[in-house]
Amino acid sequence: MGIVSPGFQGRPRTAEPALPPGQYLTQDFPVLSAGPTPRVPLDTWEFVVTGEGGAEYRWSWDEMMGLPQETPHVDIHCVTRWSKLGTNWQGVSLDTLLDGIDTSARYALVHSYGGYTTNLPLDDLRGGRAWVAHTYEGGPLPAEHGGPARLLVPHLYFWKSAKWVRGIRLLADDQPGFWETAGYHDYGDPWREQRYQGD
């Protein structure tokens, strides 16, 4: 005699993927920007890491393309509540860019063409969790999505993945960026719904 009543199949399995709280799934890639879209020619584009003491480490576009490339397949989550799953990118890991830079910094302030900034703990840019991404779904990253290159930090809300990235300043102490000074959360973990200060 069975221990399960005939016809009982348990709770139906949902086909919906697990999303962070308060998020909805989209197939689109919404365009959200706080200002005009910068147009950065590749022959003048550069990425600069600035150490606490002012030392600078620079890469031109060609030099960046010559570094080891990775192809992250990640989910992304916007603070405006949309999530897009299984996105495909190509770019250079921050582990590669920070390799050999002697620093005791605990934080980073990311700078973009156009003046945008955002802050992150330096540990969140290491360990295979962040990239300077230049390719999306097999093609050059469109300008409206941050091209020619944006920061990609998919485990945090997407405003931390600064568009039109041009550099990172390493800091001993945290320094809030553009949206953080306007009331957004300093960290921005989508699974903890850290949208605004106090969340």
From TrEMBL:
Alphabetized Gene3D superfamilies for the sequence: Oxidoreductase, molybdopterin-binding domain (3.90.420.10)
InterPro entries (UniProt xref): OxRdtase_Mopterin-bd_dom, OxRdtase_Mopterin-bd_sf
Region spans: Disordered: 1-22
CDD domains noted in UniProt: arch_bact_SO_family_Moco
Entry-linked SUPFAM superfamilies: Oxidoreductase molybdopterin-binding domain
Oxidoreductase molybdopterin-binding domain: residues covered: 35-179
Top-level taxon in the UniProt lineage: Bacteria
Protein name in the entry: Sulfoxide reductase catalytic subunit YedY
